[in-house]
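Review box. Two proteins, two foldings.
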Amino acid sequence: MAEVVSPVPGAGRREPGEVGRARGPPVADPGAALSPQEEITEGCRLPVLRRNQDNEDEWPLAEILSVKDISGRKHFYVHYIDFNKRLDEWVTHERLDRKKIQFPKKEAKTPTKNGLPGSRPGSPEREVKRKVEVVSPATPVPSETAPASVFPQNGSARRAVAAQPGRKRKSNCLGTDEDSQDSSDGIPSAPRMTGSLVSDRSHDDIVTRMKNIECIELGRHRLKPWYFSPYPQELTTLPVLYLCEFCLKYGRSLKCLQRHLTKCDLRHPPGNEIYRKGTISFFEIDGRKNKSYSQNLCLLAKCFLDHKTLYYDTDPFLFYVMTEYDCKGFHIVGYFSKEKESTEDYNVACILTLPPYQRRGYGKLLIEFSYELSKVEGKTGTPEKPLSDLGLLSYRSYWSQTILEILMGLKSESGERPQITINEISEITSIKKEDVISTLQYLNLINYYKGQYILTLSEDIVDGHERAMLKRLLRIDSKCLHFTPKDWSKRGKW
C-alpha cells in the first residue's frame, strides 16, 4: 500500500545494534587517492554519511550502484543496506568512509532480465534471503465457526472462542519495522506474476534499482519520486517532468504543459463518479475503456510503489481514483486498482496515496472504500501481497480498528453472554477470515484457557482504540455510494 515529497517520519530508522550502522568514524581525506586496484566501483560497499530523522549524523553501510562523472567530479549512487530504497541517493566522495570499503566478489554475477549479462559486478552478500518468522505454538488457531462468548471480568471483556484441534497457526509476519520493504502477511512460496505484475526481486538490474525521474510537477505539487518508473528514456534527463493533473499526460516542459492545458477539457478523471460526500469523490475507471489514462496513472504510481505495478496491460483492471474537489476541478489524492476477476479474492491490486496527502487519513479511507465495494458485491476481500511497508501499516491499523469496533459493540441479550464467530466478523466487515485471525494474533487478544480461546480486550486496548477513533474523522458513508457490480466472467463486458 500506495501507495505513495516529504519522507515519512521514521523512514530510515533502525534499532540500535542493527547491522550496517557505524556511528562516528572520521571522515576520509577527500584528497586521499586509491590505487587502481582499490578504485571505488559499482558493487563496492562502505559506510556513507547521512542525516537521520533526528538530524544526527550516522554512517550506515551502503552499496555503490552507479558512478558518474560531472565536470571532473565523481558522484556515487548509493543504496543504504537494510534501509528502504526510497532513501537511495547520489553522494560525493566526501561522504564515503573509504577505510572500510568492501570490494565485490569478481565471480558473482548479477542476473538481469531476459537472461542478459550482468550490468555490474556482484557485491558481497548479494544473495539476501527473505526471512519469515514462523510461529509454531502448542495450540491451534481459533475455529472460524465456533461462537465467541462475552463476559466482563475486572473491567475487561473476555470472549471465549472454542479451539479447532489439529490446525497449525498461520505464519506470523507481523513485524513492526516501518522500513521493511518486504513486510507482508502470508507471503506465497512463489511470486505471483499475474495481476499487478509482482516483481521478482532477484532479476532487478541496475536500471530498475535506481530512481530515474528527478522531480514531477503535478498541479500545485512538486513530488520527488521514491523509485524507478518506466517513463520514456528521453524524459529521465529532465530536471522536472510536467504532468497534467486531470488526464496525467506528461510533457517535457512547462510550455508543453501549458499548450496541452488549452486543449485538455478534463477537470476530473474519466469514468463514472460512484461516490461523493463533501469534497471527496471516487471515480471508477475501466482499464480497457480508458487505457491511456490508466497507463499514465500506473507510470505515476510506480514512482512511489516499489514492489509491484502494472504498466501497459490495463484491460483486466478497474481503477478507483479518489479526488478532492475545489473550484478548479477534481484533484487526484490517491487510487487503488482491482482485478475484474480475481481467483484469490483480491479486492485491491495496488493502492497508493500520493505523498502530499499522506498522514491525513486518506489511505485508510481508500482501504475502507475497497471493503465497501466488497460488501456490495457480497464477497470477502484481501489486498494482494506483498504490501509495501506503508501499505502494511495502513492495513494493520484499518483491520484492527474495524474488528475492535465489532467486538466492542457486542451486547448481551437476556443475561446471556453475546457470541460471535470468526466467520461472522468476516461477513460483517468483508475482511477475509485469514486477515481477521492474523489481526487478532497481532493485537495479542487470543489466550488459550481450558480448551477454549479467550479473546481479551484489556482497558489499554479499549482506551487506545477509542483515542484512535476520535482522530479518524474521514469515513465512508455507504449511503453516498452508487455502485452496481458487474459479472466480469462474461467476457463481452470487458
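Next protein.
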Amino acid sequence: MKKGNLLKLFGVISVLFLMLQLILYKTVYRQTVDFSKPSFKVSHTEKLRLLKIFLTKASELNINIFLIEPDILLSIATNKTSGHMTCSYLCQSSNVITFGIHGNKEQESYLLDDFIADGFLVIESYVKKSLSLPSHLTSNQNLPSHYFLFQTGLILHVVVYYTRGDNFVWSSRVLFEPGVKPPWLKINKLTFGKHSAATFNSIETEVIKIDNVQISVPTNINNFLSDVETSTFIECNYDRAELFYKKNPKDSSPSSLHFQKKGRQLLAKAKDILDSMGIRFWLSSGTCLGWYRQCNIIPYSKDVDIGIWIKDYKEGLTEYFEDHGLLLKHQFGQKNDSFELSFRLGEVKLDIFFFYEEDDHMWNGGTHAWTGQKYKYIFPKFTLCWTELLDLKVRVPCETKSYIVANYGPNWFVPIQDWKWNKSPPNVKDNGMWPTKDWERVIQVYD
C-alpha cells in the first residue's frame, strides 16, 4: 500500500475511533446526568451484582465495609428476617447506598484500584491539610473522607471514619476541589456528608445475610441510627485560635498550665458522670468562649462552666457527683426557677447552669449569695452539636457565635480578666429578689 493511502487509512480509523469515544462519552454522561431524575432506574439484578462485586473485593482485602444506609438499616432492625433470595432490603432504597469504612489509606488505595479496573468511576473527597484540623489528622497532605463509586446507575457512597480524641468516631463533610464535583451530585441530598459528624466511641459490626448477600451492619442498629440523628460536629477553628495567640501570646506559666490540666481533668470527670446518667450537657460561659476563641480552656478563668437543660435534670445528681469525689460548693434557686449547682474537685470549680426554654429565647439564672438578688441571662434559641476540646468529645451550641455574642458582646475576641459575673455580661437582666423566708432553701453555700 502506498504511503499516502496508508496515512489516509490511519486518518479514517482515527476519526472513527474519536467518534466512537464521543458516542460512549455522551452515553455515559447522559446516564450520570439523568441519574438524579426519578425516571432513571437500575435493575434489582444489576444492583445486587454490583454490590456483590463491591463486598467481595473488600472481603478479599480484609477490609470491613459496613452498611450505614438508614432506610435499609431501619428495615433490617424492624423485620429481623434473613436469607431472602429476592431483593427485599437492598433494592427498596434509592440508587445511592451508603457504607462506612475505618480509615486506612493504603488498604483503600488497593481497593479503589480494583474498582477502577472493573469499570467503576471513582470520585474521591479529601480534607486538605490545614490549621482548621487538629495536627494528628493532618500528618498527610490529604485525608480521604468520602468515596463515590459509580456504575450503570448505582452510586456506592463510602464514608471514611476516623478515631479521634477520647476514642470517638468522626467523619468529615464532603469537600471537593473546584471542578471535581460532578454537577448531578447534590450534596444536600446525601444522608451522610452534608456536615462533619461524630458518633459513639466505636462502631461495632456483625455480619448478617440479607437478599442472599453477606453484609456487615452495626451491631446495635437502633443505637447507631439514633446517634446519626444527633451527630453534627463542629470543628474548633484552629486558624482563629492561631490568630488569637498572635495577638495574645499564650500564658505558659506553671500556674496556667496547671489550671488547664486540672480543668481538663474536671471536665473529663463531669463528662463521665453525666454520660453515665444519660444527661446531655454543653460547654457554656467562659469554657465555651475558650473553645470558640482559642480551642482551649481560658487559663485565668479558674473554673469550668457547663449547661444542662432543666428538663434533663435527674434526682440524685448531686449525690452522684459527690459519690465520685466532687464536693458540692453551692446550690442556688429551685428546679422551676434559676437552678444552679457548683462543685469543687481539688482547687478547680465546676459550675452547672440549668437552662429554661421560652417561646422565643433560652435563659439561665443567677443568684447573689449575700443579697438574694436574682439575675436572668437571656440567649437566642440554640441547638446542640458535637465538638472536641482537649481530646474530649463534648457538646456546644450549634449556633455558637450568637451564643457567645449574647454572653460576651461583639468584642468577645478581646480577653477581659476583670469580669463581673452579674454586671459584665450584656445579656444579664435583673430578675427580682428571693424572699428572705426562702433563703435557707434557695441559697445554700458550703465550704
